[in-house]
Amino acid sequence: MSLPMALSFLFYFLFLAFSIFILSLSVSYRLTAIFRRGGGGSGRGRDSSRGPGSSGPPPQVAPTQPPSPSAPTTSTTLANHPSSSSGAESLSGEVSQKLTLEPQSATTAPPLLPSSSKAVSFPRRPGLGTVGEKCMVRANHFLVEVANKDLHYYHVSTTPEITSKKVNRTMMRELVESYKKSHLGGRCPAYDGWKRLYTAGALPFDSKELFVKLIDEDHTRSSSSSARKERQFKVEIKLASKPDLHHLQEFLRGRHFECPQETIQVLDVVLRAKPSENYNAVGRSFFSPQLGSKGELGNGIEYWRGYYQSLRPTQMGLSLNIDVSARSFYEPILITEFVEKHFRCTNLSRPMSDQDRNKVENALKGIKVEPNHMEYAKTCKIVGISREPISQITFTLDDKRTNVSVVQYFRDKYNIVLKYASLPALQCGSEAKPIYLPMELCRIVGGQRYTKKLNDQQVKALLKATCQRPRYREENVHKMVEVNNFEGDERVKEFGIQVKKELALVEARVLPPPTLKYHASGQERSVIPRFGAWNMINKKMVNGGKVDFWTCVNFSSDYANISEDFCKELVKMCNNKGMVFCQTASIRIRSAHPDRIDQALLDVFKESTSLKRPLQLLIIILPDQTGSYGKIKRICETELGIVSQCCQPKQAARFNNQYFENLALKINSKVGGRNTVLDDAIQRKIPRVSDYPTIIFGADVTHPQPGDDSGSSIAAVVASMDWPEVTKYRAIVSAQPHREEIIQDLYKTVQDPQKGVVHSGMIRELLVAFFNSTGQKPYRIIFYRDGVSEGQFSQVLLYEVDAIRKACASLQEGYMPRVTFIVVQKRHHTRLFPTDRNQTDRSGNIQAGTVVDTSICHPTGFDFYLNSHAGIQGTSRPTHYHVLYDENNFTADILQGLTNNLCYTYVLLFFL
What we know:
With 912 residues, this protein is an alpha+beta fold.
């Protein structure tokens, strides 16, 4: 194949929506386990090859009593204990106690699981890595220096309560302007927009009530003073605490282990205060037309440029992470223009059908509009649209006697003849007192973020507009820092904060790539990738899988006639690369309408089952419109138990050999084959993996797309099924509650009337499968967890480690494999830029294998950034690995090397 596999891997990562992406990491953190009891397990899974990404290094934890050296290699059957679960159930309190900083008295009950990271001690960095070629890179982190100030936190409450952050900021601005000299001691406070006010020094009081008058913003443009509305608010300011800067300094020096989040929050609010007043704040990002040119995305949506900003503790001190960004917003246009653009309507004079009316209502609900026929600006939020056209709507005037139509009212009062009287009216106000406004007289208020899912064309337009090569992205980041002008901010000066203008210069290393082994029958039996890239030309899979029963369902309308030829070429490629793939489908290849996905898949399942030809693989050509992938995967993997391979219709229609090769590699992994093997694995030279039987887990949760408020989240767990090669994996998928990040089915029990407590769950099932495949019990568990934010670290660690322990204990009393738990993050804003143009890949990015564990990493924790792949377009995003728990005593070099090497087997992505 002409394009390297590594590039293909990244491409699919960017464009495929279902992320079992987790095993793309590596290893770390020591874990202790005490386990017992057991039962039966059930679940749907599949064998397949898979390998992945990376992971982070482990911290030093008090050692636990390991199994005897002979235990890992024994082939003793895992015992089942159906009657009791007390051993597994007792582990919850034990896990909490082991991970909690406070020692527990023997006479006190186990505490509740901590809800804050402050209650959990993560492993300390075991030292810096030394392996690899040293180099220097720049990071979009800016050093922040803070003078020793007397910080104060005051709690703010208003009567009546204000629920809008924007109004809160206006209120506080008026308060400071009115009382700064008289009551605030000349202080320039920083306000978070809700309840927190911070000062660099004490205010002249501990508690005080002040009064502020605000002019209703909906009436500010009125020329008539009688139309202006004033509201008075009582603002109570009360001293709450005094954040300690000394504690922060000690933490940054590594002398304290608990991060003083409150102090960091004070400084973060100070640095965000001015941008929050000037720009549109979205999470930790700011957007404004002042920060760059706007651009159309189509359908009445535009993008605004901006930047992300976050203050973080790092080894070099406090660091301000700034990155360029872009988000979608509604265009500030008339509602009629929006309807024309969004629904591509060419004739708004025709009455709407009920179906069209529902679509329009769903698109307009929640949007703020500004009627342009009034003397003053008044905004209101759309709560719905009328069922009748506006020409048929009447209401009673204020005299409570005269009934008049909306059309007549606007003609008589404003001398406006409505052009689109057949359109429904916009409904504002409440159900009890609705306000009806014509669409053609209402303009969308600017600066409203579009939170629904972008279509394919909009995504492409946004990527095209924002995708920047490293050099240009670095320049734009630097411009954002200059635009912020922190040194000119009075508030920043008062708090004694200085932000350096230069990007951080960071020490890095480029790790060597591993040697990959292929089948001996190919012309090339091994390869050492260069620049993170290689191809499959003259190579064959190490172990080709076998597919006897398969078929294809095509849901594409635009490419409905490609199914037979596409499958023929795909089967040919699979066989050429070493698989044993039956030439003919076991049941009829068919096309189906995208509105009948459920029924079409069920029909295929029933037909194959009735013919006693259970499908080993179902090839699916996706619908032309996006959004069906998750549903198809859920039905196939969790309801019908069918291994599926989804194909994008446009890609499939190109009949490109490289695409067929990539699909063949994915399919081989899913049906139990192995594409390649690490040479070090064959020679048993992988530290912490080759010495004792080791199982590598990967886990992730995929949530419903924006706008879906009820769909299930999908949890996926994969685990290696071969040792010492660790390239063959089995996957289990499970649906769980909407937007739930904690994986619910890792371990579970069910009360059976006859059997008593029955143990099951994804971890238990995969451990049994490993034992059945290798004849050995794992001595080590390395668990890679994707998609977890830093605020969820302690919660995920506590609950999911507890589930791992219980699953082990349910299999055999005293079974205690050592556990390492690593979180992998891709959704962060750190970017690394080359300092030497001779040390880049073809795209101008840093080289594949670049690892950073200095300067911008955590002051004491075990984390690192790894850029394992070669860049395709734009600026590469390194993966951030955090070791949260480690019983396997990983060093930085061992963990980083393992992580990097596993990335080259990338079986994980092949489950997509």
